[in-house]
Write a structure and sequence with these properties.
Blueprint: H1 16-90, H2 98-113
């Protein structure tokens, strides 16, 4: 290229077209380098996301494997509680409406002892 660096400084362009071409060339090169860096960074993030997804899937699977025995134990506890409640239901409870029943019994006796008018 005609404009080669001399002591770290580039020679000034001969005309404005060459200056614009050099400017555009530099910008395109900058965009290419940054795009390459962005692609590498995106690829690294994609690898991290893939590892995260696989780890999360294995963690979920192991969690489920660990929870199944707990569910089995929980089933036993619930069955035991259900059997206790069935046994409790079979026991005779206190009579319902005891005062009302007593009153009805008194009414029956009163009707039995009632003498018809003569």
């Amino acid at each position: 290229m005609e404009n080669s660096p001399v002591d770290g400084n580039e020679a000034p362009p001969a005309n404005w077209r060459e200056a614009v071409a050099d400017l555009l060339s530099a910008r395109v090169e900058l965009i290419r380098l940054e795009a390459k860096q962005a692609a590498e960074q995106g690829a690294r993030k994609a690898v991290v996301v893939a590892i995260l997804a696989i780890s999360a899937a294995f963690t979920w699977a192991l969690f489920l494997v660990g929870v199944i025995p707990l569910l089995s134990e929980s089933t036993g506890v619930h069955l035991f509680v259900a059997l206790l409640m069935v046994a409790r239901l079979r026991r005779p409870g206190s009579p319902t409406f005891p005062i009302t029943r007593d009153e009805f019994q008194r009414d029956r006796e009163w009707f039995k002892n009632l003498q018809p008018p003569e």
